[in-house]
Design brief:
Length: 550
């Protein structure tokens, strides 16, 4: 199962994938029902976002019981069936564990609140300052202070995310052991992998102090004992088994990512990092719009590819997930006239890189952001918090919504578009999220019946990765650096050279092909390019891969 170089992983946000019990929310049997579809893409593993009991304030990332299934999503028997049906189709299930925090409704936090000293030390309770204000000036990633005051006491607890997501104290050996027991529980259920939520923020500093330069993240990101904890997690749980592990790393750097993912370090198999998805943030701020800085995007891709390879690290390759507005319409046009070109360009750009590609549900059919313009269409807690923050900061309703519709995580959380029917084939009742009008022209039913569709382009990319050693292991050499909107690289091994060119623009651009590629074979093209010439005039959003074998 564990050949991370040849595999492609498909991400399912279960709430929005397929609703079988007619409550407007997707469920685990809904994933099982669609396994044949996922398999038909050529996928080897499916990452499923959290389905554990939870008050659902952060859509399940606020876990109140680590070892059960929220009735909203089904039963343990449903989960066991999913694992076994996936195995029959040679696919593994990767579950999503949130080890940095629990819901404040978790029994551990409730016992801590009731004064049980054993459980109080599971979390970070700290006294407020003498004036009653929070222990430090750290900010929550969802807006506001990272500390929440307990009623009638000058005492606070730490929550780097929502106020209902209390940070666990990894310094406490009992906490770590309790979490390792959770990992074991799921290993015995036959899962094949773990996606570990915001894993690089679990190690907090020994002393909490104000951050005079920022929001506090520099004190706990890739924190002091992080590598020690990950080595211990590895050795105590999945280390001896052939499971696939990926850590979500917030605001990290390449040095740490190499350590997290180099097999000799015995921590994880690979990492998600997000620098390439911040090149349209203004001054690093998500809730301020800016145009895409392509030069920066390109530099980030190239430098991470090269440095991770040099250091023996391994990347997760992705554009989309449940926390990101879809890349289509963000980095490239989402106009229908360019739909196929733009979606396939994005795909080919990362699928030929070194790492393990992830496909977020609906990406393979080119789903686009609905960009809803009324706040009552949004469900996400981060979005709603920032709507309020922007309004308090004096932005007009229109200005606020212009930002929200671009940046909200709900852009990627709307229901999967299976067909063009009223609820997009997702459910037979009104869904939890609104349906996008784009279901009329972007849906699975259409995609799978048209061999020229985005779906078949993804299928081809996934197949090529399985077949070609040069994609899995070849070296990476950036090319055409002078062209700002061209991301191009050569992958190379002893016998093969694979040249890929990805053009992020609409105006025609001319490139010169290296002489020794004139006789090469066109491996993949999203335009009708039939032959190679010395001068290549790139078409809007063109992507091209050519291969030479000795
Ligand atoms: C990252 C998850 O992907 C996101 O959805 C969640 O809100 C935060 N971690 C907090 O758990």
């Amino acid at each position: 199962m564990k050949d991370i170089a040849s595999m492609t992983i498909y991400q399912v946000y279960p709430r929005s994938f397929y609703d079988t019990n007619k409550d407007g929310v997707g469920d685990i049997p809904g994933v099982t029902a669609k396994l044949d579809y996922i398999q038909s893409l050529g996928i080897q593993m499916i990452w499923i976002n959290p389905f554990y009991p939870s008050p659902q304030n952060d859509n399940g990332y606020d876990i109140s019981n680590y070892t059960a299934i929220d009735p909203l999503f089904g039963t343990m028997a449903d989960f066991e069936e999913l694992v076994s049906e996936a195995k029959k189709r040679q696919m593994g299930i990767m579950i999503d564990l949130v080890l940095n925090h629990t819901s404040t409704e978790h029994e551990w936090f409730q016992k801590a609140l009731a004064g049980d000293p054993y459980y109080r030390d599971f979390y970070y309770f700290r006294e407020g300052r003498s004036d009653g204000s929070a222990p430090t000036n750290w900010e929550s990633k969802f807006g506001g202070s990272a500390w929440e005051k307990l009623p009638n006491k000058n005492e606070y607890y730490l929550h780097l995310y929502d106020v209902t997501q209390a940070d666990l104290n990894w310094e406490n050996r009992n906490v770590r052991q309790a979490l390792y027991d959770v990992v074991h529980f799921w290993m015995t259920k036959g899962v094949s992998g773990f996606r570990l939520d915001v894993l690089n923020v679990i190690s907090k500093p020994a002393r909490f102090e104000d951050d005079l330069l920022g929001d506090g993240k520099r004190f706990y990101t890739d924190g002091p004992k992080i590598h020690h904890y990950l080595k211990e997690l590895h050795a105590s749980t999945f280390g001896p088994l052939s499971l696939v592990t990926v850590g979500e790393m917030s605001s990290t750097n390449v040095e740490n990512c190499i350590r997290y993912s180099n097999p000799n370090e015995k921590e994880l198999n690979m990492v998600f990092h997000f620098h390439h998805l911040k090149v349209d943030y203004k001054d690093g701020k998500k809730w301020q719009l800016d145009r895409v800085r392509f030069a920066e995007l390109k530099e980030l891709f190239h430098s991470w590819q090269i440095e991770m390879a040099d250091g023996g690290g391994w990347d997760a390759l992705f554009w989309n997930n449940h926390d990101q507005p879809r890349a289509l319409g963000r980095f490239v046009s989402d106009k229908s006239e360019y739909h196929y070109q733009a979606a396939t360009l994005l795909a080919a750009t990362i699928h030929f890189m070194r790492g393990t590609p992830y496909v977020y549900m609906g990406e393979e059919i080119g789903m686009i952001n609905p960009k809803f313009t009324e706040i009552d269409k949004y469900r996400d807690i981060e979005t709603i918090n920032h709507y309020n923050i922007l309004q308090n900061d004096g932005f007009t309703e229109q200005e606020t919504m212009n930002i929200i519709k671009e940046r909200s995580r709900d852009n990627s959380r709307i229901p999967m578009q299976w067909d063009s029917s009223h609820y997009a084939g997702f459910s037979s009742v009104e869904p939890f999220y609104p349906i996008s009008d784009s279901k009329k022209w972007i849906n699975v039913a259409e995609s799978v019946t048209n061999e020229q569709s985005i779906f078949y382009f993804y299928k081809k990319l996934i197949q090529l990765r399985k077949e070609l050693d040069v994609i899995q292991k070849g070296s990476y050499i950036p090319l055409y650096l002078e062209q700002e909107r061209v991301i191009s690289y050569l992958r190379k091994n002893d016998t093969t050279e694979l040249l890929t060119i990805h053009y992020y623009g609409e105006e025609p651009v001319q490139l010169q092909l290296p002489d020794h590629f004139l006789e090469a074979e066109i491996l993949l093209s999203n335009s009708d390019r039939q032959e190679l010439t010395k001068q290549i005039k790139l078409k809007p959003y063109e992507t091209l891969a050519v291969i030479r074998q000795d």
